[in-house]
Amino acid sequence: MPKKYEKEIRWLKDYLRFVDYMGVAQLYLKGNFLLKEPLQAEHVKDRVLGHWGTVPGLNFIYANLNWLVCKEKCEVLFVTGPGHGAPANLANLFVEGSLYKVYSQYSVDEKGFSELVHDFSWPFTPFPSHVTPTVPGSILEGGELGYSLATAYGAALDNPNLIVAAVVGDGEAETGPLSAAWNGNKFLDPKKSGAVLPILHVNGYKISNPTMYGMMDNKEVTNVFTGFGYDIHIVEGSNIEEKMMAAIDDSYKKIRAIQKKARSSKKPVLKPKWPMIFLRSPKGWRGIKEFGGKPIENSFRAHGVPIEGLQKDDVKLKAVEKWLLSYKIGDFFDDSGRIKKEIFEFVPKGNYSMGRCKHAVGGNVMKALNVPNLKNYEVKFKKRGSATASSMNNAGKFLRDMFVQNKDNFRMFCPDEMVSNKLETVFEATNRAYQWPLLKNVENTAPDGRVMEVLSEHNLQGWMQGYLLTGRYGIFVSYEAFTTIISSMVDQFAKFLKQSFKVSWRKPIPSAIYIQSSVGWRQEHNGYSHQNPSFVSSMLMKHGEFTQIFYPSDANSMLVALEESLLRKNGICVIVAGKRDLGQWLTVEEARKQSRDGMGVWEWVTGAEATKNPDVVLASAGDYMTEEALMAVKVCKDLVPELKIRFVNVSELSGLCVGDFCNIFTPRTLTRDGFEKFFTKDKPVVFNYHGYTNDIQHIIWEYADVKRFSLHGYSEEGSTTTPFDMAIRNKVDRYHLAMDLIERGAKRNARVAKKMSEVLQILENKISDHHNYICEFGDDPPEIKGAKW
């Protein structure tokens, strides 16, 4: 009786010989690529780089998905968790012609084959050792492990016809982010979104250690993933080719059945049992079995380069030659260097191939965003500072209407903080997403919700980057202190983004937007653990050339920051804004005008004469910092009206300059003359900054003598205390600022110098009095809480 899939399995075995050979050859060979002559030391790369162990399993998975695509004419995006297995991706992309589509040197013949084998991990060629943006079909490099599954779920959101095949390595599966990512199935709406097919590839070993999943038996594995809500297919042992095809086939049918049921009924499908595949295969499968009396296949020794130092050891050279010859690569080429057609029997053609999945180049499928008119949300005032508003609460109205006007390409991602950050107004237009049955008292939650809330920042970042990289728009909202949880993950996303700028066929995608609220200056009630502005520092230091930091001073400036961020492409935008009611300083038009430079001189603070020829410049960045700086001006006006102050508000920073001048995609650059237009040529500057002062110091050194700048900012002084005491402890309060202004202004103004000692003592007394008051009453005094500009 013929075996099921007999024809397909016959093709599969030949196909795997071909791509497995390519995987080994990419590691080792710089010549004699088809071993038409005996292998010599000069044929071997001087630096043998890459990883072998995961390659055969990846080839096996990719080939089976190829067969599925050919059979069903479905759209599949391939996400590679173990990105160090790039030789597998490249081998398969070569065969399907996706490499040749974008790199003409990799023609699908012996010449292109040889070029690719040579170029893997070779300096200044397209392909480093991982699945970088230079690799067609990729949306994840897979270098820092743990992010594949969450990214896959993000890509599937609002892509109803797409299946994202997410290959998770069993080492990667041990990471915290990946462990949380299995819960993505609870947020995926089968009615309007696509599907994720997780494939946990268990080859048993990491670099020198066994894996936890490799040491679990099938009952234990089944219990784990059934508990997560998956319909698990375990593929292992004899006849593995037939078992894998059956698992792939059955998984596809179950995915379509779930979607059909959801899309043909008005009632949501609750708790759908999405399929997943648990594949056990030996590490270094179908490769060299042993060397030097020690096992290689099915051991940790297969992880990286199984045999090194070939050039100086004939025994090693012969062992690798024997290994390569075992694939009989010559069987697949004719005399003219063409690849025999049998290899392509179940390889998808054209845009059906996974390397040409349109969603992997998000800029090609990106739709224009509809941004509401900011005038509809403007906070009006008659006198500056007379009206108060919450930047976040007001932004919530704008974001509510973003959902109304962008029903299938805009989402928000938040770790259970939408309400805490005063954005609950968005729930007038949408809900939180959740697909499983709910507890009795749950609010604003539904299967078709577009706000993704889960208490896993890694899940949220993965979902958002998958969503962005496939051409949609997203905003991540978090407490300021806890965005740092994903700093490294955002670094990896930024690295992927930066590399993509150099790839001609990668098109611009929406920027990643982070709103940081519940900022440290008003986390005096939660304490020191909640006071951490370092996410901004990390972004400025590492990715400043395409990162823009927004410090809106009020609710109208917040609207402008949101609009600019949503319209910006290929960047990282961080908006830092408090959630409490604060004074309003600028109209929407004034905020828009300031946004052109990212900073502005506020003449209305001190008047035309003082602004034109100041004794000292006072600058602020951040809403609470701006409020304290303005109050410092008021203190100075009361105590030393002779002091002339210019007030500068900085609303944007990049890693290259203050303001909105230095993004790598705009030709504008901030010159020294431009800098001096705001900060003068030689006057002392007192700068009240929201975060760590090093952020500013690293930026301004190129434009001015840093010694004329006195920088105030967060200096790691915090506790559970009063709001104003937080400011005093870090010397960003009105009294410390006023003292600094007076001391610096006194060097240029004799009338100020004459009064300086007396005034400084008054201010020192105010600081001391405040300390005594809060120790007695546990709260800030009325003169602070009730102060008005």
Structure write-up:
The chain has 789 residues and is an alpha/beta fold. The protein has three domains: 6-357, Thiamin diphosphate (ThDP)-binding fold, Pyr/PP domains (Rossmann fold, 3-Layer(aba) Sandwich), CATH 3.40.50.970; 367-583, 3-Layer(aba) Sandwich (Rossmann fold); 601-785, Rossmann fold. The protein is built from 26 helices and 23 strands. The chain has a seven-stranded mixed β-sheet with strand order 12-9-13-14-16-15-21, sandwiched between helices. A five-stranded parallel β-sheet has the order 1-2-3-5-4, sandwiched between helices. A five-stranded mixed β-sheet has the order 18-20-19-22-23. Helix 9 links the parallel strand 4 and strand 5. The radius of gyration is 30 Å and the shape is elongated. The mean pLDDT is 95.
What is the fold's blueprint, element by element?
Blueprint: H1 6-28, H2 55-72, E1 75-80, H3 86-96, H4 98-102, H5 110-119, H6 148-156, E2 162-169, H7 176-181, E3 195-202, H8 218-228, E4 231-235, H9 240-263, E5 275-280, E6 290-291, E7 294-295, H10 314-325, H11 362-365, E8 388-390, H12 391-405, E9 410-414, E10 432-433, E11 445-446, E12 451-453, H13 457-469, E13 473-479, H14 487-500, E14 512-517, H15 534-543, E15 547-550, H16 555-567, E16 572-576, E17 581-583, H17 588-597, E18 599-601, H18 603-606, H19 608-612, E19 616-621, H20 623-639, E20 645-650, E21 652-654, H21 672-679, E22 685-689, H22 694-700, E23 709-712, H23 723-729, H24 734-746, H25 750-777, H26 782-785
Parallel strand pairs: 1-2, 2-3, 3-5, 4-5, 9-12, 9-13, 10-11, 13-14, 14-16, 15-16, 19-20, 19-22, 22-23
Antiparallel strand pairs: 6-7, 8-17, 15-21, 18-20
Helix pairs in contact: 1-2, 1-3, 1-5, 2-3, 2-9, 6-13, 12-16, 14-15, 16-17, 20-24, 24-25
